[in-house]
Amino acid sequence: MSLAGAGVSPGAGHGPAYILTASVPEPPEDSAHTGDADAEKERALAALHQVAGELESRADRLEADPDAPGREGADILRAQALMAADPGLAVGVEALVDEGVAAPRAIFSAFAKYRAALAGAGGYLGERVADLDDVRDRAIALLTGHPLPGLPSEPAPPAEPGGAPRPYVLIARDLAPADTALLSRAVVAAFVTEKGGPTSHTAILARAMGVPAVVGCAGATAIPPGTTVLVDGTSGEVRPDPTGEELARVAGAARARRAAVERAGEAGRTRDGHPVPLLANIGGPGDLDAALHHGAEGVGLYRTEFLFLGRRQAPPAEEQERAYRAALAAFPGRTVVARTLDAGADKPLAFLPPPAEEPNPALGERGLRLLRRFGDVLDVQLGALARAAASETAELQVMAPMVATAEEAAWFAEACRARGLPRAGVMIEVPAAALRAASLAAEVDFLSIGTNDLAQYAFAADRELGTLGDLQDPWQPALLDLVHLTAAGASGAGRPCGVCGEAAADPALACVLVGLGVTSLSMGAAALPAVRAGLGEHTLDQCRRAAEAARAAMTPAQARTAARAELPALTALGL
Ligand code: PEP
Ligand code: MG
Predict the structure, then answer these.
(1) 502: domain range?
(2) Which one, out of 117, 250, 438, 459, has a CA that is 20 to 30 A from the CA of 224?
(3) Does position 341 have pLDDT exceeding 60, yes or no?
(4) What's the rounded Cα separation, in Å, for the pair 313 and 372?
(5) What pTM value is reported for the model?
(6) Is position 259 within any domain?
(7) pLDDT value at residue 563
(8) Same domain membership, residue 185 and residue 92
(9) Are 180 and 135 in a shared domain?
(10) What is the whole-number distance in angstroms between the Cα of residue 453 and the centre of ligand 2?
């Protein structure tokens, strides 16, 4: 019997079920060691040391893997390794063992202090509690012989002697980004979670990895471990014990898909030759290899704030210049779109405080609003961008986030011109800007739609809240209306209009966006081959019909089904 959830990352995958088990049990409060305190301390510190080493080496592997979803995963793992190696923690553990406490309990109690401090801080730091618990549980599991919490690091052994290792179908109640960041396509064939929505971290990372995923699938964790499971990330069907015939059908579709996606070197275009540049979203120079590997035609969104996060002050101009130049040098003669610092809301920076306490920071001073207040920070960034561009052949375009009015667009274009930057644009993330797209477009050289924030602001649904997943679904017909309006406004003003939000990474939605009049698509690099293949199999007219069908629907699910009916090659390709 099949289970049903929401398909959030297309394609089909199958493999033995790997059920992510509950966390390691808390060591009993009164557990004492047998008397040799030095040996017990050594045992405890060795476990922490081993955990730190394993996390570091996983981070190394992740950074060396061009298929891995960006640098963020490796950064999270290194931060966890630092927690395990913290000298203050070791001192705390040793003191507890000296008092007679057994090593596992000493580790549990020593972590408790840090845990309370983080939980008390709330916000971004508060969310790191789960990472800390993971480190703690790994060390305790090593000491107690309890199976390690978390994830497979290798695929399952072959089903028969001489066969190939089999990637797992990973099933969990929910997955933290630190979990999913560890995984590669060699280890995971598909994700299934009982919780989560279309914009959950599982969904975003699965799409970035190009792995099928189904979320919101009730009852999935009751599937017995090791059962073969077939996951359809397009329809949302999860099928334990599939028949040989079903597996053969999936294998046929996968072969067709591979053949299509292998055309990685080709430029993005529809079947009838309408060009649609396919660009990569990057967070820093560390993402460039993956962008090139997957055939990006340039960079459509350089999220420069990753250079600034976690700093006490803005990075020096020379450091910025190096990071920008690296992206331009990777794409000689192509386009690189850098977004100026998008701080505020969920990405606060200590050195750019809002003027007053903000009860709703997503509606406060964020993006361009903050940069107008801190003009010197913008000026240093624009200067570094201009100097980087001066020595490279790539065309640098610079755009501002969180722009609401034509006046703001004009202000930003002027700031860019004053710095000698010839091509300035704005992101369309606020419904007011979409409604007046033509007048914003008249002030700048291009528009780029950020569908993640446009959904958040159009539906008044905080993108950080998993409970509002339905409202953030990029297939919402009202969001498609706003995209259409923006593309029409840009076209009327004779300006190009790209999309650089998560929506562009879905092969079906990518066709719909093109049908709505979008002129380029930018996405996490791993999604590029499938989007290129899907687009290359349909004409511009089919894309337009799919867009009309989606806009005529009432719900996101109906929009998706209606659009896909106009895009038949997607199913044939298993996309
Ligand atoms: C968006 O909002 O769609 C976008 C691309 O920007 P970010 O996700 O970085 O806010
Ligand atoms: Mg945004």
Answers:
(1) 276-573
(2) 250
(3) yes
(4) 17
(5) 0.69
(6) no
(7) 98
(8) no
(9) no
(10) 5
DSSP single-letter state for residue 567 = -
pLDDT of residue 326: 96
295 within some domain: yes
Handedness of CA 551, 459, 355, 350 (dihedral sign): negative
Residues bordering ligand 2, an ion, CB closer than 5 Å: 429, 450, 453
Confidence of residue 416 (pLDDT cuts 50, 70, 90): very high
What are the pLDDT digits (tens) for 202-256? 676 777 777 899 988 999 999 999 999 999 987 889 999 999 888 888 777 777 6
Nearest alpha-carbon partner for 135 in 195, 99, 85 = 85
What is the mean pLDDT of the segment spanning 477-486? 98
| Short-list 142, 145, 82, CA closest to 114 | 82
Q: Output DSSP code: residue 469.
A: G
What's the CA gap between 67 and 155, in Å, rounded?
16
Q: Which residues line ligand 1 at a C-beta cut-off of 6 Å?
A: 301, 303, 342, 429, 450-453, 500-501
One domain for residues 93 and 13: no
* In a shared domain, residues 103 and 165: no
For residue 414, being part of any structural domain is answered with: yes
CB-based contact 332:292 (threshold 8 Å): no
Whether 181 and 282 share a structural domain:
no
Place of tokens 């030759």: 273
